[in-house]
Amino acid sequence: MVDQQEVKRRVKKAIVDALGLQIDPHAIPDDEVIFGGGMGADSTAALEVVFEIEEAFGIEVDDEELRVDLFDSVSSLTNYVQRRLDVDDRNVPNVNAPKPR
Predict the structure, then answer these.
(1) What distance in Å separates the CA atoms of residue 91 and residue 57, rounded to the nearest whole number?
(2) For the whole model, what pTM was predicted?
């Protein structure tokens, strides 16, 4: 399981990179509205954020998961990424586990 604070830090960095913002990612409040808020992001920028998130975390955001509420805030996007990482971790076989006899 990936630490929630680390996920949040990387999500903020992905947002800054995707939107080309000239700010420190740590300066973004957790409840900052990504679209229609202070960041000035639009629907085209949403795709850039998704690409950055996919690359940063090695996950794939399915088309049916692309909903407005996913981008409500930094926290909502962080929670989504955390859930995806947790699910992916559970689906990866443990190569160090003893083999059944």
Answers:
(1) 16
(2) 0.79
